[in-house]
What we know:
This is S9 family peptidase. This protein has 688 residues and is α+β, with helices and mostly antiparallel strands.
Amino acid sequence: MLTMGCAALALMAAAPAPRDGAAPAAASAQAEDPDLIPRDLLFGNPKQAQGRISPDGKYISWLAPVDGVLNVFVAPADDPSAARAVTNETVRSISAHYWTPGGGHILYPQDSGGNENFHIHSVDVETGADIDLTPVDDSVRATIESVSKARPGAILIGLNDRNPQLFDLYEVDLTTGERTLVLENPGFGQWVIDNDLKPRFAIRQMPGGGSALFRPDDAGEWQPVAEIDADSFFNTAPLGFNRANDTLYWVDSRGRDKAALVAMDADTLETSVIAESDKADIQNAVLDPVTYEPIAYGVNYLKNEWTPLTEDAAADLDFLKARLSGEISFVATTDDGTKSVVVASSAQAPSVYYVYDRAAQSLTRMFESRPELEAYALQPMHPVVIPASDGEELVSYLTLPAGADADGDGTPEKAMPLVLFVHGGPWARDSYGYSSAHQWLANRGYAVLSVNFRGSTGFGKEFVNIAAGEWSGAMHQDLIDAVDWAIEGGVTTPDEVAIMGGSYGGYATLVGLTFTPDRFACGVDIVGPSNLATLMKSFPPYWRPLLEGTFFKHIGDPDDPADLEEMMAQSPISRVDAITKPLLIGQGANDPRVAQAESDQIVEAMKEKDLPVTYLLYPDEGHGFARSENSLSFFGVAEGFLSQCLGGEYQPIGDDFEGSSIQVVEGAEYVPGLPEAVAAHAANTAEE
């Protein structure tokens, strides 16, 4: 089995009194509780991550920290103990790395302070030479468009240096960094590249929604040849060509609700269905290393399930399922297909990487990403289907504290505080598996519930599109319905529910405290928008091609008076007066998706009305917290905040601010231990 194609798209004063019935914060602190999982084991850097094997099978690679910063390590495949770091990042961890065809180089993207204007680096594995293939201004974003076995010394890169809204195509030499313009972008949002690094198709978002597929005619002029209607946009996308470049594989929901795996003749455009499911979209496909044809596909409803398309793939899956527990993922393979890196994971076991030798029928363990967690009792995650008030099915995931569920059926023996943890996107989904957030909160004594509200992807196009215009409407009602389900089922009580999330989940938190203020005891907002109109106007220029279709359809056009009125009616900033419960906000100063102004404006509005808010700002972060020091500081504050709100256990902040850029802009007095941590951090920083 080979590669996996994946379908697209946070002054000393008296703290407020605890909630009625909650243990006082000081009594909740557990500095030496042996059952309390240290936060650094959950939110700090993994020991190792992202295991890979080189295309020629000679090397294995992974990410691991060097002085607290994740870098790429490479070792001979037969001698992992000889590993050496081949990158030298000292400030911001590397988030991803890729082997080039042939195995001579490793590629990795890196931005500055979370601004998402990535540069693409190439590292020569033998010499260690690190070349920035895109030595452009930091206002320019680079994308890896394609690499190919047929062109092992080159890479196709997209750059928006000429027009910030559009990515032109450049071919770059991996060794010298020499860059050659291949094609100026005439207005496309996505390229479809074949195995010769040739742009064969392009996709343009259309006004009013949907998109059009283009290809060049004999004269080189790009002509529209097919449409992707607005309703099918979110779960229709190309996966890639077969080896002969005459068939393009797609996940495609045109003419159906759930995305199917289809093959399209690259000449006639005729399509045939390879596989489909009536439960959920097909989102993942495993491709043969020689032919690049799909040999297995994945469907994720409650959990991901693989279905083989060939006898060899069936044998591989049978072998792996018999020896590995939890869910299996395929992350890398050699060019000849004889060896693959597979990952086994479950809610109670973070990712374990193996090298699978097909010929020898053997598994060799590479590493476990967070081995220190083996010393602690992680909790199972229960998939549940919650009925929405209008009959829609909400695939959700519930995690309970240790000892709360004696018979293991997902129902606690008694009601307990609950944290509703809302995913971002909103065009994404929650899935079964290991979650640092779920394990952290359950370990502190909370039930944790994550809900795939309408608008979440993976469950068919109808489920996505019934969310259009419903950001504070039916999408939020789904979350309220899930809370009601938890109350009625004895999981929690009406006065013991907090809401928390990032990005759209942050927006949902703000909506929860403004539109339904009596339903939540407190909220934690991580990089969430407070004003839909200013959100839309602050998106980076390269998002512009998406706005007129996708965003305008689902949120509205801020330049249209009627839309603007509705957008403001759905914006938490318009309902600040309704807030009565504590709020914690975390924001990255360089966030290109949800600008700092989104947090600044609601904090300012709350200050004007003397409403309690704690605001944490990170000057070296973007859309979320990439640096482990910042993650630790944020979740340390969040833990104390939730303990004050819901009465759960907490590990004191301690030295979790060390190395962090955290700025407590407002409201330190509302979180136990925070004023002292701020003072200590300031003193330590001054000494340095």
